[in-house]
Specification:
The chain has 235 residues and is of the alpha/beta class. The chain has one domain: SGNH hydrolase (Rossmann fold, 3-Layer(aba) Sandwich). 48% of the residues lie in helices and 10% in strands. Strands 2-1-3-4-5 form a five-stranded parallel β-sheet, sandwiched between helices. Helix 3 crosses helix 8 and helix 4 runs parallel beside helix 6. The relative contact order is 0.14.
């Protein structure tokens, strides 16, 4: 392992530890301050870049610019899988009581060749848990490199669209649209976006999120979202 690779891995570990520590130590949000919880992996944790320049931090800025009072909590950890996200989600829901949960997970599962059924079940369980906690869900569509084979790749992509059933779940089309495959926007590993790509990633997220925020504003007559009642459906 060369020094540059080691430095990147150490930086990713430090960033992930900081994010996880913030998640545990941050006090619950005030009831009048709606929360958007981002549950993701390195694509949202800012692998290889300054956290302040990541798309999640840029989202917080854009919300303020557009008059939304929401606070963004980034619960993303580099290298995480849908299995890890499912394990971490209950405590995050209890602590932050989010109005909206953005699930950005599954890419690492695909890269490791995990069972599609397991990935689907984990994502579905995260969606159900979020909805039962009164949150609305946005699911970010992920894809895997073509060298994994067209059959696996197509089924992997399709599971996101199968899970995104309006109005319960809103799909964010491919998170890295316009970014993946562009060497000028990707880091040397070809998997993680550079700083210059972060505004483009936010642009991919914003249409689905802003539509949800606007619909909530229309329903409630204010910029704050209205929390849905807890579901009585058995998972």
């Amino acid at each position: 392992m060369d020094n540059s690779c080691l430095i990147l891995k150490l930086r990713a570990f430090a960033a992930s530890f900081l994010l996880f520590s913030q998640l545990l130590l941050t006090p619950p949000i005030k009831a009048d301050e709606p929360v958007i919880l981002v549950l993701g992996d390195s694509l949202s944790a800012g692998f290889g870049i300054d956290l302040s320049q990541g798309w999640v931090n840029l989202l917080a800025q854009r919300l303020r610019e557009n008059g939304f009072p929401h606070r963004v909590v980034n619960a993303s950890i580099s290298g995480d899988t849908s299995r890890g996200g499912l394990a971490r989600l209950p405590s995050a829901l209890e602590l932050h009581q989010p109005d909206i949960v953005i699930v950005e997970l599954g890419a690492n599962d695909g890269l490791r060749g995990f069972s599609l059924n397991e990935i689907r079940d984990n994502l579905a369980a995260m969606i159900d848990a979020s909805r039962q906690a009164g949150a609305r869900v946005l699911l970010a569509e992920m894809r895997i490199p073509p060298n994994y084979g067209p059959r696996y790749g197509k089924k992997f992509q399709a599971l996101y669209r199968d899970l995104a059933e309006p109005p319960d779940v809103t799909l964010i089309p491919f998170l890295l649209e316009g970014v993946a495959g562009n060497p000028e926007l990707m880091q040397e590993d070809g998997l993680h976006p550079q700083v210059e790509a972060q505004p483009l990633i936010l642009d991919n997220v914003w249409p689905a999120l802003s539509a949800l925020l606007e619909s909530s504003r229309d329903e409630s007559g204010s910029t704050a979202t209205t929390r849905e009642p807890r579901s009585t459906r058995t998972p």
